Amino acid sequence: MMPPKKQQNFSVPPAGNHVARLYEIIHLGTVPTSWEGQEKMTDKVRLTFELCNERKEFKEGEGEKPYSLSREFTYSFGQKASLRAFIDGMTGTKMADDEHPDLEGLLGDACLLNVVHSSKGDQTYANIQGASPLPKGMEAPAIVNQVRALDVGTMDLGDIEQLPEFIQKKMKSSEEYARRVQNDGNPLDIPFN
Asked: 83: closest CA among 46, 30, 53, 135?
């Protein structure tokens, strides 16, 4: 006898282009990753956007809030880096070869996000495929979520405990977190940008 199918317990926004604002950047640190069967340590950053015009009441009584979508990148601005291409697309400008943009300076910025759906089993997921500037004349609604940049190397270790469990787990697996624990929790002398 087959077990009953799990019900999809979360809602995904529709696929397509969405007006969005970047509201959160999390430097997860240098974490274990797997690429083509090879295990290695990779510096990762997570960008989170709110979809300004796609709203839902996620918890009864709290009113409608915008959907949020995130995407993780290797924290690199090399010529072939995905993060570099994404930021170029989001801003509509091409970075100079030696440029390292101020990610925190992008917080609150509006763009169009291209959202695509993928399926795994009976679950449907919304994924950020790319970004582009808003078309001329288009305005984005005001940002709803708190704008913040978090860095495993500098944030209070107690604040890490307040983050969603899956983010805590990634941060705690990082080289930066391990160094901080060895250093009595003191911030590392490393800049986020």
From this structure: 46
